[in-house]
Design brief:
It is built from 16 helices and 39 strands.
Amino acid sequence: MSFDTLLVANRGEIARRVIRSAQGMGIRCVAVYVESDADAPFVRDADEAVRLPTSYLDAPAILEAARATGAGAVHPGYGFLSENAEFAAQVGSAGMAWVGPSPEAIEQMGDKIAAKALAEKAQVPTLPGSEDPGAADQVGYPLLVKAAAGGGGKGMRVVESPEALDEALAAARREALGGFGDDRVFLERYVSRARHIEIQILGDAHGEVVHLGERECSIQRRHQKIIEESPSPRVDASLREAMGEAALRLARELGYQSAGTVEFLLDDESGEFFFLEVNTRLQVEHPVTELVTGIDLVREQLRIAAGEPLGYEQKEIHFDGAAVEARLYAEDPANGFLPAIGTLAAFAPAETPEVRWDSGVVAGSVIGTDFDPMLAKVIAHAPTRREAAGRLALALARTHLGGVVTNRDFLVATLRRAEFLAGDTTTDFIDRVKPARSLDPGEEERVRLAQLAALWVQGINRRDAQVLANTPSGWRNARLPEQKLVLDHGDESITVLYRSLRDGSFQFTEGGGRTGARVHAWNEEGIDAEIGGRRVRARVTRSGDQLIVHGPQGDLCFVEQPRFVLPGSEEAAGGFVAQMPGKVIELRVAVGDRVSSGDTVLVLEAMKMEHPMRALEDGVVTEVRVDEGEQVEAGTLLLVVEPAEQE
């Protein structure tokens, strides 16, 4: 089946990624979008776009959009309807090509229990486990509770002891039901010192199936990947061959067509590997495979969907160098990696070093709670793994980014850790190595960036001056007085005192001394200035009362302190505050209840994940301000626990 028009049934960076390859093949692209995405970049990238009346899960509306625009094929991207066997069948029944595996393969692999049974039939090693929660003692602790349907870390809980099993089962079932419409779960042995290894496969309609080597995706939080690479530093040639052959046996058993991923858990100590699941779609981390093999996976998907043969055999696939990918998220690593929302005031990817940016946002994009908070995938390719990691870290650090809290600084810290560079990247990496979760440039650097911000602001003031616009900043006909700018950075307040000198230079007063400064270049986007003999070029973005200043180590966000401060509201001591918009799905306490340190008092659901809130100390509940089922905004005071009186 050939086609010249493709409908992309997805959004954000993956929609842009698919459109880029399809248009490169001369295929016209149609996007679909919901109202909140009307101004999104992927809509502008497409040749035509159709607004959906409800959501990206509205299969009838998407099929109607495909018919109306003459689409001959539908590419589902990942997430949403990408692993929906019924939707895949409907696309085929409508006479259009489905860019993915058969509905039968999707259905069989979408059920992790059925997938595990097929893997055993194909003689692929599997982890000990059980569908019976009562068999937990036979499986052994620690164990993993996993949703039978879906993925992405949802419906998954690590259980260390029998006492924690019931709560983990209940939470996993709720999360699985909410995320996938299926509350079935099963138990599986948990390997603490493990690596997450996946094998990329490609199969055509003519019986040819190949693998494109492995990716390691062990750096995870909440069982969700954030750094991926190919090849794995742990996998040698013999292990690669064994895992590749296991993946191909399963693919042949399935009669697999299109791109897919067979995921394995590798015991870091023994070298044993075990089947986890098959993802019957394109993976978020597919670019690392593309960069080391030179094979465009989206192009191959489209060729296979059109009925073309792969045209190459396993022995013809070669690997070049190393690639590392980082997922840039709007989330707060210092606050348990909770998703963040807001307007992306600054977003200017570094021009050098050269890396690949797969992004669905631009400066000014609004990051809300409706969709996954990933902003971009950033991928570096180099002759060696160490060089690829260094290039990626530098590109992230040199990117001007602000307005929304992100994990950028955490990613940079992780990529530069000696343990990461040595390949010590098991799934417990974050808890074990503890990379810095935020940027801490030190007091001297914070003051320097605040001074750069002050010089940039005085330039803005000169530009906008209505009277005496051409006179020096702070000019008087007597001795020029000091000017003052107070900037808040977190809990710290920095007072910048400076004076404009008659020769056009500046002088800062700090710690009883004076430091000379000179502005070499200034524009609305930044400043090039020398302070105390050290010259720095800084990007600066102003958003309301925020100044986002990008220096040599990354971005710092300052808040300009108003001249007159309005009284603020008092925060309740012992208050539990919602860190993001969400829904109260379980309220376990009432006014007057006594709680112990570690007790779960409330469970908040946000972005289809459950976030239990636990007491930090023994106390008594004195206020409950929400009800179960209530939708709350970020910053809402939920309840108050006062410390227990000492007897």
